[in-house]
Amino acid sequence: MTTLNSPVLRTAAVARAAGYSAQQVRNLERAGVLPPAERTGSGYRAYGEIHLRSALAYRALAAGVGPVEAKRIVRAVHERPVSEALAMLDAAHARLDRERAELREAEAAAKAISAEPIADVRPSDSMSVSELATALAIRPSTLRHWDAEGLVVPDRVTPRETRRYSPAQVRDARLVHQLRGAGYGVTALRTLMPQLRRGKRAEDLTAALASRAANITSRSRALLDGTAELAAVLSRIRDERQDSDYPCPVTVSWRS
User: Is the pTM of this model over 0.70?
Assistant: First the structure.
């Protein structure tokens, strides 16, 4: 049975171990995510541990930072000085840290906003597009986009159907602003905002923010798993290059 430590792995073995198809493995090699494989006398690809570890690293990183950034990081490990690849990983961890901080801020702000009572509403309490945009420190075009997407729909008053935001609509806009800052997309908010308006504000906000926290945790774990696989790749590269910062592309040989 072929194992992780086997000196030679066929394409199908790497595919099975990494959870990919054989064609996907070949595509990853062409994309530079895997270093070039040697060929057997009959022309078959001969992969090794470094290829499997690279495929596993890419799979985990793709779940953590997305496939485009994952390819950049793994290619950098094979083609660039190690300091550049580590800098990319540092940046990925920093982005997740910022997302966690933004989520905490959104949780606190959304809790306070959702608990605000709306009473004694008067026409003078409403706000125009420019007034609300200034209050939220966003562009008026952002409010118009939210209107078009059905997230925060203001009243229309004549003449010329001018937008005016009631206190309840202002509160909705503040919630959307906080949730967008915490990473929620427009599609997710289209589902969430009607639920909040139907009176389930506290419960739905708690569930939505908890879902976002779980997503960040999942991506953080994937980034950790990918980093562990990259550490194994770097260890093998270091052994082959005998160089402290690996300044040149790796040449893989399994016949030594």
Answer: no
CA-to-CA distance for 11 and 20, rounded, in angstroms? Answer: 10
Using CA atoms, how far residue 20 sits from 12, 40, 63, 212, in Å, is 9, 22, 14, 28
Give me Rg for the CA atoms of the chain: 26
SS3 164: strand
Q: Which of 237, 242, 248, 150 is nearest to 191 (CA)?
A: 150
Question: Which residue, among 4, 2, 11, has the nearest Cα to 45 in the 3D structure?
Answer: 11
pLDDT tens for the chain, residues 1 to 256: 333 444 688 999 999 999 999 999 999 999 999 999 888 888 888 899 999 999 999 999 999 999 999 999 999 999 999 899 999 999 999 999 988 887 787 777 666 666 655 555 555 668 889 999 999 999 999 999 999 998 898 988 766 778 889 888 888 898 888 888 877 888 878 877 776 766 555 666 777 778 888 999 999 999 999 999 999 999 888 877 654 444 444 444 444 3
Instruction: Give the three-state DSSP class for 9.
Output: strand
For 54, other C-beta atoms within 10 Å of its C-beta total 28
Q: Are 212 and 184 in contact (CB under 8 A)?
A: yes
With beta carbons less than 8 A apart as the criterion, state whether 197 and 205 touch. Answer: no
d(CA 168, CA 177): 14
- Rounded to an integer, what distance in angstroms lies between the CA atom of residue 138 and that of residue 140? 7
* Separation in Å, CA 251 to CA 15, 36, 99, 126, 141: 22, 8, 38, 68, 53
